[in-house]
Amino acid sequence: MLMEYTWNDIERHIDACTHCPLSRTRHQPVMGRGSRQADLMLIAEAPGAQEDKQGIPFVGKSGDILDRLLRDCGLDRKEIYITNILKCHPPGNRDPKEEEKEACFPYLKYETFFLNPKVIVCLGRVAAQRIISPDFKITRQHGTWTCRKNCALTATYHPSAILRDPSKYEIVKTDFNNIVKKLSE
Ligand code: URA
């Protein structure tokens, strides 16, 4: 069934999606961006207010931090794929609701299936608990690895955690340097 669709089909479905009430408050949905041949996929939780305005993931302050991190680790945004669990902005930046995550999850499944990445990195608790394990503790388990269907999975702090506590920058940079090593294994 997954095989029947293309990237363009999924993009069109996301653009027209009304599967949850966020479709009534969003300005526009935010599909993943980057290389569709990437080995590395980053998954965060949901678009913020800036992303909702521009329709591109990580263009606000968290995006600036993410770009700095990527640069410091020799990665380029254009060569990786960045997406979110939710494609629509939750008002007030609240945590995504269970029903919103469930409604949106098929889109992430398609993105993952089409991309077939070597490494998936969850940015923050919400993504890690949805993708890796419901009881994932980002403080204790960031930087640890699991393997699923030939894909290496890990999680690190969300860039917004660095905005709140700049001392986390070096911790996340260490995690990203290990991600770069994993990509070359
Ligand atoms: N925060 C997220 O989780 N995703 C974005 O795209 C931007 C900010």
Description:
This protein is an alpha/beta fold and 185 residues long. Helices cover 44% and strands 14% of the residues. Strands 1-3-2-4-6-5 form a six-stranded mixed beta sheet, sandwiched between helices. The longest helix has 18 residues. The chain binds uracil.
Number of distinct beta strands: 6
The helix content is 40-55%
Element pattern in H and E: HHEEHHEHEHHEEHH
Estimate the mean pLDDT confidence.
Answer: 96
Could you say which structural class the secondary elements and strand pairing correspond to? Answer: alpha/beta
Distance between the termini: 32 Å
What's the total helix number?
A: 9
* Order of neighbouring strands in the sheet with most strands: 1-3-2-4-6-5
Q: What's the shape?
A: globular
Note the beta-strand portion: 5-15%
Largest β sheet strand count, sense and barrel closure: 6 strands, mixed
Name the ligand types: uracil
